Amino acid sequence: MEKLLKIDNVGQFSAMNNNETLHPLVNIVDLSKADKRENRKSNYGFYAVFLKEIKCGDLHYGCNYYDYEEGTLVFVGPGQIIGVENSGEMYQPKGSALVFHQDLIKGTSLGRHIADYNFFSYQVHEALHLSESERKLIYDCYEKIRQELGRSIDKHSRTLIVSNIELLLNYCVRFYDRQFITRENANKGVLQKFEELLNGYFSSEKPREIGLPSVAYCANQLNLSANYFGDLIKKETGKSAQEYIQLKLMDIAKEKMFDTSKSVSEIAYELGFKYPQHFSRSFKQHVGYSPNEYRSLN
């Protein structure tokens, strides 16, 4: 098996792409300066925002190969692995990459809230596709960071660079919200598949075999990252994916209560609960009645 390429810091990433390291913790890297190279899997030890400036297909996720149009943003967080096994195919990297290490943002507002930017754990095929006006705003943020990196480092450098990175990421939050809306039909398709997945799950033996369905399980079945899936469901329904699963679970539980030939414990096990008392507690919390009280109402 091919050895995973570990890229631990900004300097290493800059050097491998033939770019000068202007700051040890942050850089805007021109990927077109890189030599042609073979595909391989890479593990990043820092945050990276890839801006694909022309149509190209040089980023991969898992076993999939993605072709990006001009103005696509791809986000990679520390520890994330992208790429494919080395096939011997050579390609020329294109576009730009904003790369910054966790140490740059420690003690800052961005450092305290970096986990809120869920797109750093999205899969590559959940990239952000920019409109022309959005692209100009992102270019402007990149240029401000680039200009600041070109100055001599002083006591203001870190504050200004981090502020511009935070501004860029906040724009991306807005643009992802727009993308969820403009791709509403595709999103509704995911919501429908989610509903079908839950219906199929609870009508099978899977609850007894593996328990209650988790958000991560559902996202994996729909070929989405857990964070992207959760954000999409929240935008479409106003509820978190976990809340949606719980509501579905309670709807099915209420239906099963009409079958008085089964005890509450039997129904609990059928739904995937390990302990009937946990089911009874959850049922009362969501429905307002205990399972037996609910039965007595019907």
Automatic annotation (TrEMBL):
Q: Name one Pfam family in it.
A: HTH_18
One Gene Ontology term of the molecular function aspect: sequence-specific DNA binding
Keyword Translocase on this protein?
Answer: no
Instruction: Tell me where in this chain the HTH araC/xylS-type domain is found.
Output: 196-297
Does the keyword Transcription regulation belong to this entry?
Answer: yes
- Keywords of this protein's UniProt record, alphabetized? DNA-binding, Transcription, Transcription regulation
Recorded hits in SMART domains, A to Z, give: HTH_ARAC
What is the name of the protein in this document? Answer: AraC family transcriptional regulator
